[in-house]
TrEMBL record:
This is DNA polymerase III subunit delta. Signal peptide: none annotated. InterPro entries: DNA_pol_HolB (IPR004622), DNA_Rep/Repair_Clamp_Loader (IPR050238), P-loop_NTPase (IPR027417). It comes from Holtiella tumoricola. GO terms for biological process: DNA-templated DNA replication. Its EC number is 2.7.7.7. SUPFAM superfamilies: P-loop containing nucleoside triphosphate hydrolases. It is an enzyme of class 2 (transferase).
């Protein structure tokens, strides 16, 4: 059993670890950098499994170590999770520094994975510096992050940096294949997953996704036809359902992104292939500059909503401006 083979994509990284593990040349500290849900944690888990397995054909999936790992109970694999919004210095000291000082209980390695290293405070990073600089012979630290810029140069320079790219469209299709989806649905999920299996999984589990996507488009199409009176009705409809506003703006943004793509290159990789007629109609009526301006307006509204600015004010303003420049 080879757990690396079960992970979709990232052939280079899998090949690197297969080789490093066989030749016992695994480094002491790594940074796994890449977008959400592409397999960083899965690879970390597979590395740990291959290193800690006590069977013949590693990872065997049958030995005590493998069973403990599968149950999430192996004492020599430790995950450091963020506290609330950040990973604090006390957590780093308690879970990473102290644990690393204690020899492994069972295997030849102790592996500590920081799951959201971009949330580490500066103090937290400084606290782990010595562990990364002078690791014990059995110690391996893996820092998982979506944003490399959040790590101190002193940390970065001491780690092997492995970059996880978004997965190709084909890989996402491969992941979606076992689900009972129509061809159209498969296309929609694959496109909205943005190269991330984690996101694809979330979308499939989100029973409202397809419905919400349709609702977002319906509102936008209504806005196109609305006069001033109707527009204020729309503001009310949208603001009556505050939880939906963020998703709606995201759906709108991708809609305008489709318009821009259609204008520039044709109908490649559209998020709204099922609305091609509406997209073509709308893109023919808008200039490239207007589309670009509208994208900025929607992004601006997203920022304002995130800053908790009064929703009715934000939406009213946005709708007025989206209407205003219609040419
Ligand atoms: Zn095993």
């Amino acid at each position: 059993m080879d757990t690396f083979n079960k992970i979709i994509g990232h052939e280079d990284i899998k090949r690197y670890f297969n080789k490093a593990i066989k030749s016992e040349k695994v480094s002491h500290s790594y940074i796994f950098e890449g977008p959400e849900g592409v397999g960083k944690k899965s690879i970390a888990q597979a590395v740990a499994k291959s290193l800690l397995c006590q069977g013949e054909d590693k990872p065997c999936g049958k030995c005590r170590a493998c069973l403990l790992l599968e149950a999430g109970n192996h004492p020599d694999l430790i995950y450091v999770e963020k506290d609330n919004k950040t990973t604090k210095i006390d957590t780093v000291r308690e879970k990473l520094v102290k644990n690393m000082d204690v020899k492994p209980y069972q295997g030849p390695y102790k592996i500590i994975v920081v799951t959201e290293a971009d949330t580490l405070t500066i103090e937290g990073q400084n606290a782990m510096l010595k562990t990364i600089e002078e690791p014990p012979s059995y110690g391996i630290v893996i820092l998982i992050t979506q944003n490399l810029a959040k790590l101190l140069p002193t940390i970065k320079s001491r780690c092997i940096h492995l970059r996880f790219s978004p997965l190709p469209y084909q890989d996402i299709l491969e992941y979606l294949a076992p689900y009972q989806l129509s061809e159209r649905q498969t296309e929609i999920y694959a496109q909205f997953a943005e190269g991330s299996i984690g996101i694809a999984k979330k979308l499939i589990e989100d029973e409202r996704f397809l419905e919400d996507r349709k609702k977002g488009v319906d509102l936008l199409l209504k806005l196109q036809k609305a006069d001033l009176m109707n527009m204020y009705d729309l503001v009310k409809v949208i603001c009556d359902e505050k939880e939906f506003i963020s998703s709606m703006l995201h759906f709108w943004l991708l809609w305008y992104r489709d318009l821009a793509v259609l204008k520039a290159t044709g109908n490649e990789n559209l998020y709204y292939l099922d609305y091609q007629f509406h997209l073509l109609d709308m893109s023919s009526k808008l200039t490239y500059n207007t589309i670009d301006k509208h994208i900025k307006l929607i992004k601006n509204a997203q920022t304002q909503i995130n800053q908790n600015i009064y929703a009715t004010f934000v939406i009213e303003n946005l709708l007025l401006k989206l209407k205003e420049k219609k040419k």
